[in-house]
Amino acid sequence: MLSTDYLLMALFLVITGFLYTHLFSYRRRHVKLPPGPKGWPVVGALPLIGDMPHQSLAVMAKQYGPLMHLRLGTTGMVVASTPAMARAFLKTLDADFSDRPYTVAARLTYDAQDMVFGQYGPRWKLMRKLTSLHILGAKALEHGAAVRQEEVGVLVRAIRDAATVNVPEMLSCTMANIISRLVLSRRMIEVEDEGPASRFKDLVNQAVALSGQFNIGDFIPSIAWMNLQGIEGRLKRTHGKFDQIMDEMIELHVKAAGEREGKPDFLDILMADGGDSGHALDSNNIKGLLLDLFIGGTDTSSNTIEWALAELMSDPTMLGRAREELDRVIGHDRRLCESDLAKLPYLRAICKEVLRKHPAMPLIPRVATKDSQVDGYDIPRGTRLIVNTWAIGRDPEAWEDPLKFMPERFLGDGKGAEISYWGNDFELIPFGGGRRICAGMRLAAVVVEYILGTLVHAFDWKLPEVGAAEGAQMMNMEESFGLTLRKAVPLTAIARPRLSPSAYV
């Protein structure tokens, strides 16, 4: 027999569904919303989203159009799935869609006290200014070249000495060390390190997986307390572990202040100069910003390089062409330098193509801060926006043969050669667009080209054999959805040196 509590809950859901369905229908009669699926009572279109939202939304867009409206619980959401629709929101109406929706995932970064989830305003602008000036801008990028060269050297020697290479793990360690040396003046992850660094690496994986899920409580706030999917509880525990690590890192940093006398690093600047605009950064802002840098800086770039290497290993002809270009420009007696990148157009085309087909962030979230109109449709204030960069990269109106990995589309005199990923060409927006375009895009672009080129030039790559009778295993290219887009099966490979021994010193 059902308990009184369950009967009351069932009655509550039925009444809520009845009232909201009628209220929503009444509102629709007074505004012209974009077309979209009708959905279910109470939950709306939430059951249609599935485990791979970027794919299911792309399929729905083929039926309902490039601008689509979905009711998710008590929340309206519009989805832009073509370059033209992305331009409308991220350029024409950028000011009206400059905020992120507040979701349970924002609790990771101290209730959206960071730059990724934070609300657009003076404090957000200060964080953006400081990171651009000291870490992610053009001058800072030039100053960090020596750090990147040293850390890529460590990566190359680790791959040389490994029997098999867990590609995403090694790439994540390298990226974490590049970021930590720029921010904290020290390497974050050492071999067999059992301190804060090794715990942090595992937590990044948890955070990315949890943050990308569509949490029911975010769309039906009245039942958020039930934590039906368990996401809120897991995020709370993950945040607690992150917070402990952040506190330990900052404490160690303060104790070592004497070692940096006259040479302040980024954390020193945040702690000392964060209030120069009258909107001082508190400890939660600083820790949230550090999490942005470490999670965003390690996960997105390492995923992109892994996808690119997997695509090249799947096509020996393409891999051979990339290697021929590298050998011709660099030779066999030294490793790739960042100054070589401008002479490697095919490598750059490969990196553009991987960002098109496998965007690090497949869905860009925003929220309407005022009532707007797009393409003749009403977008009420508070409506959530998703720009589906994954669907845009596969739009047959924008790209010829979009499912094929074809770097050549970015070479020669064709349309693709003129397209960049700096936010002005909405056919290719892996870093987003408008005022909230990814602050780290310059660093990401250089790191992806530099590390991918180094891996292709310095090593012969092949998949491990799974058995004498079966031969080499097949490349698995399935996706795993989260805040970022990962390979479902991490790339494990065998790498053999192909340059002169002196190149690995």
Automatic annotation (TrEMBL):
Claim: Iron is one of the keywords in the record: yes
Segments passing through the bilayer: 6-24
UniProt keywords, alphabetically: Heme, Iron, Membrane, Metal-binding, Monooxygenase, NADP, Oxidoreductase, Transmembrane, Transmembrane helix
One example GO MF annotation: oxidoreductase activity, acting on paired donors, with incorporation or reduction of molecular oxygen
Family of this protein: Belongs to the cytochrome P450 family.
Organism: Trapa natans
A Pfam family recorded for this sequence: p450
The UniProt record lists the keyword Transmembrane helix: yes
Protein name, per record: Flavonoid 3',5'-hydroxylase
Cofactor: heme
Residues annotated for heme binding in this entry: C438
Gene3D superfamilies: Cytochrome P450 (1.10.630.10)
Superkingdom, natural source: Eukaryota
